[in-house]
Automatic annotation (TrEMBL), chains A, B:
GO MF term set: DNA-binding transcription factor activity; transcription cis-regulatory region binding
Entries under Pfam families matching the protein: LacI, Peripla_BP_3
PROSITE patterns (alphabetical): HTH_LACI_1, HTH_LACI_2
Keywords for the protein's UniProt record, in alphabetical order: DNA-binding, Repressor, Transcription, Transcription regulation
Protein name from the UniProt record: HTH-type transcriptional regulator TreR
Gene name of the record: treR
Quaternary structure and partners: Homodimer.
SMART domains (UniProt xref): HTH_LACI
Residue intervals of the HTH lacI-type domain: 5-59
One GO biological process term: negative regulation of DNA-templated transcription
InterPro entries linked to this entry: HTH_LacI (IPR000843), LacI/GalR-like_sensor (IPR046335), Lambda_DNA-bd_dom_sf (IPR010982), Peripla_BP_I (IPR028082), Trehalos_R_gpbac (IPR012771)
Length: 315, 315
DNA sequence: CTGTTAGCGCGTTCAA
DNA sequence: TTGAACGCGCTAACAG
């Protein structure tokens, strides 16, 4: 708003030229210690901070990144975003948030907007169905979360590991009839991989395979548990804790206490409501941190797009 | 990144001067219909969009606003933010998100950063304990949510109305022993007002007043319900649905089915997990929309800071 | 090592 | 009604 001071002012106040101030500002070499210190002192004293827009105009980067979540109230995505924000802020990036509501059209529209705005980078949460040509332009400055795609940077959870850990734990506790409640295979990670890992474990240990893949809402969990509860079932693995919440509601209502629930994802909500559920932590917090720093590295050209997998830990 | 075209290019391509393009861009008067149409056609055709940073540098506004939530995973705040985002995007504002974690120090620090960045405005969620002199500088471009302060714009929920509605409903259903589980009074809105409204209703109808004000976490709800459950208690009003979730967990565990729960806040989670709970909708969605548009109006100088109250509706 | 100069893309005079 | 010139705050190229 009002007359903020500029490098010109700082220059005048410290008796040097504009460009020297600029050099100090950007930690460039070629400035004597004495001058640098003097200039820095003046900047401190006046609480000077350079105009973002002016820098952006020269440098082609306004230091803004976008985080596109599927839903603001996704428990798991929240945990990742929570650790992501501080990283961005520390590095001077402004993170703007966008909700995709699982709509590819909406994502494409937003990506278009982001491009027109010349945004620096994007973190895109678990998403499929976006046209390749749209995504392609973002290849150097995009990090996918919980999804991977050839040539793109991504941070994924160890779906197989998570399910294996869960199954092994249940198996060790003596369970031999472990049903599965999951997500359809068009969701490659949460859907296909987790289901497949469960199938594999069952095969290896010669267990019967009773499963359903209704989707990822609580309601779907609630409505479809019954399908996978056989008389002999003693445990149920859920692909997500949201599903587990739905399932657990059903079990409570039916007063079924003989079934051990287990799920991927240890959100605070489920830990509180149902501490008896066995969970593995897919590493949401770590995933957020990694995604943010990976994106920043890419933006600065310090790293090529990489595929990162976060190990799951029993919780 | 690469050579985006500028107004200069558009000017050349449409055979006019830069300033004419600028005028068209800003819908200024003083441009003939023919020229305007021609220029607009060229802009359309080349998908031109002006550089944000360049405009910002001239106009002192980069069209960025900040939304400071207490927690990313707050159920109620999520609902408000969800309706807020589209409003900002429609008006060309980039909403950046910040989590305060209920820490006044953190908010002050972030406000400082936002000021250095020359942000246009801030939506600040339910917060007290920030020094007045800090907040003062933001007075023209700040909207408080779920909190009010003299001289500041705010969007609040109708705490009294919500509780009254709830109580009346319970009373009509024949309940005469209605306990209360709430939040300490240092939280003026969710704490004091709701509690006071409950007290008032009880006085008017000569009901006994059994209550506890543990805080606003589920855990606190869970741990303190017992205190307010008398043998004669038939209903329990909770100040927030988070508290209600905690309380309800306790009731389930104790197999207590004789107590009707009621709470302020109809988040999808509680509607699904406990549809039997009587809830009022404080109007989260509407609050988000109003807050966003109020902020934009203020930024553009089209409105003075106002105090808005959203009516509660039975849900 | 440092100051001077020239733009970046846009809005805003001021003449024409 | 329009265009040319200037400057916003900053960085980069070039002098000194």
């Amino acid at each position: 708003m009002q007359n903020r001071l500029t490098i010109k002012d700082i220059a005048r106040l410290s008796g040097v030229g504009k460009s020297t101030v600029s050099r100090v500002l950007n930690n460039e070499s070629g400035v004597s210690e004495r001058t640098r210190e003097r200039v820095e002192a003046v900047m401190q004293q006046h609480g000077f901070s350079p105009s973002r827009s002016a820098r952006a105009m020269r440098g082609q980067s306004d230091k803004v990144v976008a985080i596109i979540v599927t839903r603001l109230d996704s428990l798991s995505e929240n945990l990742a975003v929570q650790t992501m924000l501080p990283v961005f802020y520390e590095q001077g990036y402004d993170p703007i948030m966008i909700e995709s509501q699982f709509s590819p059209a909406m994502v494409e529209e937003h990506l278009g907007m982001l491009q027109r705005r010349n945004i620096d980078g994007v973190v895109l949460f678990g998403f499929t169905g976006i046209r390749a040509e749209i995504l392609a332009r973002w290849q150097p400055s995009l990090v996918l979360l919980a999804r991977e795609a050839k040539g793109f940077a991504s941070v994924c959870y160890d779906d197989e590991g998570a399910i294996q850990t869960l199954m092994q734990r249940l198996y060790d506790r003596g369970h031999r009839h472990i049903s599965y409640l999951g997500v359809p295979h068009h969701d490659v990670t949460t859907g296909q991989r987790r289901h497949q890992a469960w199938l594999t474990f069952c095969k290896q240990h010669e267990l019967a395979t009773v499963s359903a893949l209704p989707g990822l809402t609580m309601k779907q969990g609630y409505e479809h548990v019954a399908q996978v509860l056989m008389p002999e079932t003693t445990a149920l693995v859920c692909a997500t804790d949201t599903l587990a919440l739905g399932a657990s509601k059903y079990l409570q209502e039916q007063r079924i206490e003989s079934v051990q629930l287990a799920s991927v994802g240890n959100t605070p909500l489920i830990k509180f409501l149902h501490p008896e559920i066995v969970t593995v932590d897919p590493g949401y917090a770590e995933a957020g941190r990694r995604a943010a720093s990976q994106l920043i590295e890419q933006i600065n050209g310090r790293s090529e797009p990489q595929q990162i997998v976060i190990p799951a830990t029993l919780s």
